[in-house]
């Protein structure tokens, strides 16, 4: 942000600002450069934390999908497909058309199963 303000002022004030810039001491310039280095280090640190956090969140999401499919973490795509077919047969909403409460629960469960299976299809490129 400081850089942007600096550039705007330089563009608008032209020669006057250039004269002031020449008067900036070497010590002030070194302080400015130190500020810039610290700023870049902080941005890098934030980026690394964000990447680590998003990776961790993705792993937790994947664990939940394995749980929805009642599988241990790291199961193969073939195991996932078999579990999905078994569970979708068990909880398909058409099986509970006579009982509204069970039908509603089956719809929710089948939606979760479909989301989990779609995630693994995308992950494994199927």
Structure, described:
There is one protein chain. By secondary structure, the protein is mainly α. It has five helices and no strands. The mean pLDDT is about 85. α3 (about 25-70) packs across α5 (about 100-125) and α4 (about 75-90) runs antiparallel to α5 (about 100-125).
Short overview:
The protein has helices spanning 2-13, 15-23, 26-68, 77-90, 100-124.
Name the helicity range. Answer: over 70%
Order of helices and strands: HHHHH
Number of helices: 5
Major sheet summary line: none
| Mean model confidence by pLDDT | 83
Number of strands: 0
Class computed from helices, strands and strand pairing: mainly alpha
What's the layout of helices and strands?
Blueprint: H1 2-13, H2 15-23, H3 26-68, H4 77-90, H5 100-124
What are the main properties of this structure?
126 residues, mainly alpha, 5 helices, 0% strand, elongated
